[in-house]
Specification:
two-stranded antiparallel sheet, Helix Hairpins, mainly alpha, about 75% helix, about 10% strand
Length: about 210
């Protein structure tokens, strides 16, 4: 008797051994993915706390920058500030690199080239008030905080996506792959037990016929 098993799997002892090995590998993969998912979730919530702190720092930096801007406006006037701003060189390009955390690519954002200093802002000390330098310093800090915040938000997004992918893989193994392997094994075991019973019955019947003969 050579009936086909579930989804074309032949109900033989060799296939049963193969399925048991596949189930063992699937279970190990499931356990590893569960560990990865849990570690990613822990890291996600840690980064959420860091993000809240970074946003708080950005709010403070912006508040300080605008206060200094108001002082500079009263000191040198809006027109003079506008003229000074025309001489300020443009910021360098933004560069994005990648770092890896548990196999997840995280963005690393930074401005290309050196950070702007008072010597590179397109104006000199002799023709401006110190308040202008303070404004420039504060907004340079705001710029750095914005880059850091963008980097953290990008990392959180990548982390959330990886958590979702890992959860789907865990659920697929748990709800589909492993149960199917177990069901196929039960089908083959049942079939082999049936063959064994039939074989025992034939041997008994053969023995009885030989005894009668």
């Amino acid at each position: 008797m050579h009936r086909k098993g579930i989804r074309g799997v032949r109900p033989t002892r060799i296939e049963l051994l193969k399925l048991r090995k596949r189930e063992l590998l699937a279970q190990k993969g499931h356990d590893l993915l569960e560990e990865k998912r849990d570690a990613l979730v822990i890291e996600f919530f840690r980064m959420v706390e860091d993000l809240r702190e970074r946003r708080r720092r950005l709010d403070m930096a912006m508040g300080e920058a605008y206060k200094k801007l108001e002082v500079a406006q009263m000191t040198v006037g809006n027109r003079k500030l506008r003229e000074i701003s025309y001489g300020v060189p443009r910021m360098g390009e933004i560069e994005i690199d990648v770092r890896h955390l548990m196999g997840v690519g995280m963005p690393v954002i930074h401005a290309a080239g050196p950070s702007p200093s008072s010597r590179m802002r397109g104006y000199g000390y002799a023709f401006t008030s110190a308040t202008v330098d303070e404004v420039a310093d504060r907004f340079a800090r705001v710029f750095e905080e914005v880059l850091c915040l963008a980097e953290m938000e990008g990392s959180l997004l990548r982390l959330a996506q990886e958590i979702e992918r890992t959860k789907r893989r865990v659920n697929a193994l748990e709800s589909i792959v492993i149960p199917q392997l177990q069901a196929t094994q039960k089908h083959i075991e049942s079939h082999l037990e049936e063959l064994e019973r039939e074989d025992i019955f034939r041997r008994k019947r053969t023995k009885m016929l030989l005894q009668k003969a």
